[in-house]
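[Q] Does anyone have a clean structure-token version of this?
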Amino acid sequence: MQRNLILALLLLAAVGAAWALWPRTRPLELSGTVLKNPRPAPEFRLESASGPVSLADFRGKVVLVFFGYAHCPDVCPLTLNHLAHIYRELGEPEQLQVLAISIDPERDTPEAMDRYAKMFHPSFVGLSGPPKAIAKVAAGFFVYVRSDASGYIDHTSTVTLIDPEGRIRVLYGQQLVEDETAMLRDLRAILERKGRF
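[A] Here you go.
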């Protein structure tokens, strides 16, 4: 009789432990485009107002990368404004970093791009660098860039999520960023798991 009671208690404890751990072990259901085979994000070394910055500087954090430019009339300020709102809604977590990388290095000095990013949130980091370095980084993130004679630059407006180990995990198109609710839900779930997928 006592043996059956012990077995029942052990079974109950095992079921309780499984129930408690299950949400953390099942795959996340995210709204963004999840890469089934995550690949390492391209390493880079660019400049901010405070000096050189590399992606490796943010290892251990979830990083959101957006490519834009300070003279952008529409998509860039909207995207950064949405990201700032999402960041505030999350409680400004230290384990999340937003990087805004210039695709217009001819006009966006590191100081100008960093100042631009910080207009949306003081923790955001704006980066720029030599045109060849920017082109290489943009290509590594599959960012399309085409400028016209007026100075307008057509570009990919995707926000890329990089996990704490430096792998590209999720892509957010403009509609999901503008929706905010879906991206906010995704980021809450990801941060709750400390960036583990």
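[Q] Thanks! Anything notable?
[A] The helical segments are 2-25, 75-89, 110-120, 131-140, 174-179, 181-192.
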